[in-house]
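User: Please predict the structure of the protein below. I'd like the answer in structure-token form so I can feed it into my own downstream comparison script.

Assistant: Understood. Taking the following sequence of 387 residues as input:
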Amino acid sequence: MEDEKITQAEYDARLANVQKILKQKDLDVLVVFGSESEPQNLIYLANYWPAFETGAVVIPREGPAALVIGPESKTFAEDSGVLHNIFQILEHRESSEPNYPNQNLPSYGDVFRFISGGRKPKRIGISGMAIIAYPVYDAITRSADGADIVRADEILIDLRMKKSANEVRLLKRSSEITFKAFEAALKNVRPGMEEVEVSSYILGEMFKNRAENVAYTPFVLSGNRTNQAISRASHKIIQANEPIQFSFGCKYKGYASSIGRPLCIGRMSKKYRELVEVGIGAQERVISSLKPGIQAKEVFKKYWQYLEAKGFTNYFLYGPCHGTGIMECEHPFLEENSSYNLEEGMTFQVDIFLGDQALGLRFEDGVIITDKGAEPFNSEYRKVIEL
């Protein structure tokens, strides 16, 4: 399946789109920061996912971009990335902060001079301001030579909101792999297992089907741990007749997927079954509401009205959707005050989390907005699951 990839022409177009916006915003340079846990913009622009160290793509208003990496990642970046101008900068080193005394490493000033043909930038934008490491930010400011530094996260957020045909193909393939992992977990989970043991079946099936990594650490949660919206599998022993939550996803050629389903080995309690049925109905209500042209907060309104009618607003935490793509969770969130309109080509995780102090659940599936509405990447097992 070598044809399943982002082409060099698409990477070139992405950089060209950024440069067009730089001219509109009167920015001379854009520094796009990323890390191992937040690599989305580096993958989007350079097909580079840092390991241990951090990285950046530095884009001038005109001319070729540069990939900035730490001192140890040069051969890795040359092998995996699509940018050929590579700079190793000390401040992108790993957190144990080795000094590399025998290496003569360049500075951000050298990068700025190279990409700008020796011209001094007057305005530098930074994308990734919420996550940038302080030593990297400090290195940029010390090399800016008086240039204004401004936050410019919206450039990549807006460009990545709608997906290309190649991106959609990769998202669908990623979802297929994740669904196979879900079925493997469903087939092998047993009372008496630790939650982490179930993760072995999830991960094995993902990598067997050519996933490159997990989208996030698998959530295999049981009993009252199901009320944790963000978590990971633990050493808790799974019991019969108690709630279990599976939430996990993989990454395939840079693109993420996720599935969320509650289940039970044995019989669900009456209370939990009612919660599950409300979750099913809520997800179906949201999916049917996702259409191009509708304002996002109108979708939230329909979701909230459903919870009100069922008497479950006290189980609400967030949602019911967030963007998805290179990261399982990315811009935009769909919330009560979301003023943007849905457009064809947007992709979301319809992520219904409901919980109280005792129990919780998540129903989650990816969708793409088409001219006919929301097309789910998966619709299987949207039901009460009792094994």
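That's the full token string. The radius of gyration is 23 Å.
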